[in-house]
Design goal:
The chain has 185 residues and is α/β, with parallel strands linked by helices. The chain folds into 2 domains: 26-101, Roll (Ubiquitin-like (UB roll)), CATH 3.10.20.310; 104-183, Roll (Ubiquitin-like (UB roll)). 38% of the residues lie in helices and 28% in strands. It has helices at residues 3-22, 26-29, 46-52, 63-75, 118-127, 140-156; strands at residues 33-39, 79-88, 93-101, 104-111, 163-171, 175-183.
């Protein structure tokens, strides 16, 4: 009989510690969001970014909800990087979303192609739904698709080798120049 209370006493603290690890610390349970800041946007308006954020000033600080907000901002397709930072404020948490917008394509050049091929390239891109144009967002996947389309077009015309290389040049502050260079032996 003497051992039973001792075992219960040892088990209870262990069970209590296990349960306590499942409960968020007291300072985050009812912590409110004091302010939400947006940083880094240039072309995309703050209102558009805020429309993606479901967390609200005065609402409960919830890391799970903030993770969904981050995904929602990414889903717009306008950003290559989104970060969330939080810090303690006077009356709660100050949450800052820092975004890095995808650059715009300011220039597209076709090097090693004949001028007479430009209209064929444009038509081939339209037929194959390749949307790579000036003043659109730079998307590496679309650029690679355009590269493959150019190689296919050259092969269909009997032009061998039908190889194309891509060069992307940064144009500060947030633009790029894309060059499709026909590789010749």
């Amino acid at each position: 009989m003497d051992s039973t209370p001792c075992r219960l006493w040892i088990l209870c603290p262990a069970a209590l510690l296990a349960l306590m690890s499942l409960v968020p610390p007291a300072h985050t349970q009812n912590t409110k969001i004091e302010r939400i800041d947006i940083r880094g946007n240039r072309r995309c308006s703050e209102d558009v970014i805020r429309s993606c954020i479901k967390s609200r000033v005065g609402g409960v600080y919830d890391e799970g909800r903030l993770n969904l907000d981050l995904r929602s901002i990414y889903a717009t397709g306008d950003f290559e990087l989104v970060e969330i930072c939080e810090r303690d404020g006077d009356d709660g948490k100050i949450v800052t979303f820092t975004v890095k917008e995808k650059p715009l394509i300011r220039s597209i050049e076709f090097v090693g192609f004949e001028i007479s091929e430009y209209s064929k390239i444009s038509q081939y891109f339209k037929e194959h739904k390749i949307d790579v144009r000036v003043d659109t967002l730079y998307d590496p996947a679309k650029i690679r698709a355009a590269e493959k389309a150019l190689e296919q077009m050259l092969a269909l015309q009997g032009r061998h080798p039908g190889k194309v290389r891509i060069e992307v040049e940064q144009i500060p502050p947030a633009s790029v120049r894309v060059k499709f260079i026909r590789v010749k032996d």
